[in-house]
Specification:
With about 325 residues, the chain is an alpha/beta fold. The protein folds into two domains: about 220 residues, no CATH class; about 80 residues, no CATH class. The chain has a six-stranded mixed sheet with strand order 1-2-3-4-6-5, with helices on both faces. The longest helix is centred in the C-terminal third of the chain and has 47 residues. The chain is globular. The mean pLDDT is about 85.
Amino acid sequence: MKNTIPEDRRISLLNDVIFHYVFAHEQGTQCLKILINTVLESGGLPLAEELQIRSPFNLAQYIDDKMSIIDVRARDSQGRWYNIEVQNLQQKDFLPRTLYYWAQTYSGQLDEGDKYGELNPTIGIHLTGFPMLSLLSPIHASVELRMKHDWTRHVTNHLRLEYLDFSRLSSCSEGDIVSNKVLSLMYFLVHEGNPEDPTMAEIRKQNPELDKIENRYKIAIGNDEVWLAADRKRRAIMTHQAIMDFAREEAEAQGLESGLKKGLEQGLEQGLEQGLEQGLEQGQRQELRRIVTNMQSHGMALETIAEIVGKTSSEIEGLMREAT
């Protein structure tokens, strides 16, 4: 299929707005079915026959909150529930968050008075731009509950988490990508909109159903309101990442410089080794307080600051109390 998307309109299909429009719009049910069934088939699970989207696309969700995280929720005709999300940037505690999303979807099946026996299997599908578990885990990792003493026995089929790490596709050969349906899907999602990529033609040839996703993608890109919302989302993520990178670099460079200076001063009195150690720690904490104070003056939330500097909110609060 010839790509007719102007270069200045190209936005990744993995942009949250575009992804949600393609897979959670009422006219995107077939696209979502392709994504889900590709993952289910790879695990030898029964395919979804019909799907009902439970979190339909709503453009208003993206107008005011550019950093919102919107997942796709659906239920199939067999009663199984699905929670699908894309996470491009690595975040602290992302693994517990995926469990929390699964728990929300699972527990949300019941209303007051319903019986636990009415609960149905729930599957989380998480596409990430970073290794979710470890570099030793496969690019597509499936997590389920099994007996410790007998790995062939399932505890239950109600919990299943699928982690698809598209950041490591570059380590795969073209042959591996084209011959594996999950890898083909991942590659397609990452590179859709790129007419220069020769692997895409072979993937489309082997997986003609992906044309439905491409058609929805083109509709999304051609919709001015959707495109503007996606562009705002893209810019917000780029700005957020730049702030995080700058803050980390500044904290490392200035904290080290200040710590070394303080350490040398104390080393003259207490011994060079002990002074360097204490001075580094004290100097780094002093510099970190300065950076946190600066961020707070720009209106940044405590949780965001903690994420940027790699501390917990309580650690930041304790650090600031030291100066009072």
